[in-house]
């Protein structure tokens, strides 16, 4: 029975240490959130400010790295899509496809961010004829109104 008392005392000491540690961490968390700053000295406030600035630098660095990784992946995907597009256009030309949209790449895009207007024109033979129903009547109506 004498051996049980020191074990209980050690457990109680561990409990007190953990309780103190939890209270310290909770206070630190509140301070980092801008709460309960009144009792802090100027030196403690400066240390807190430095800690927050260092944390912000780490966060911004991680964010920048994540954005750079996403940009790299998107550029890789863009290149893969351009290659696939080029291969598909080649296959269409090999099968005798005359009614193909002109090829536009990232280099063909002007400073406005849009493809050249000439490149955007569709070859009417390529479109579904059912889409042209009523188009000529609409154009005639527009021409008559302007005349």
From TrEMBL:
Keywords: Coiled coil
Ranges in coiled-coil conformation: 45-94
Alphabetized PROSITE patterns for the sequence: K_BOX
Residues making up the signal peptide according to the UniProt record: none
Record bears the keyword Coiled coil: yes
Any Pfam family the entry gives: K-box
Alphabetized InterPro entries for the sequence: TF_Kbox (IPR002487)
Single GO MF descriptor: DNA-binding transcription factor activity
Keyword Nuclease: no
Domain (K-box): residue spans on this chain: 8-98
GO cellular component: nucleus
Top-level taxon of the source organism: Eukaryota
This protein's name: K-box domain-containing protein
Organism: Eleusine coracana subsp. coracana
């Amino acid at each position: 029975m004498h051996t049980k008392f020191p074990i209980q005392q050690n457990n109680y000491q561990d409990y007190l240490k953990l309780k103190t540690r939890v209270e310290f961490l909770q206070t630190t968390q509140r301070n980092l959130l801008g709460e309960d700053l009144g009792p802090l000295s100027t030196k403690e406030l400066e240390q807190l400010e430095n800690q927050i600035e260092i944390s912000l630098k780490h966060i911004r660095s991680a964010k920048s790295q994540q954005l750079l990784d996403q940009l790299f992946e998107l550029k890789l995907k863009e290149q893969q899509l351009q290659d696939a597009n080029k291969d598909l256009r080649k296959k269409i030309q090999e099968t005798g496809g005359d009614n193909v949209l002109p090829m536009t790449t990232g280099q063909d895009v002007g400073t406005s961010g849009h493809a050249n207007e000439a490149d955007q024109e569709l070859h009417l033979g390529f479109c579904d004829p059912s889409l042209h129903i009523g188009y000529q009547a609409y154009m005639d109506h527009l021409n008559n109104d302007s005349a």
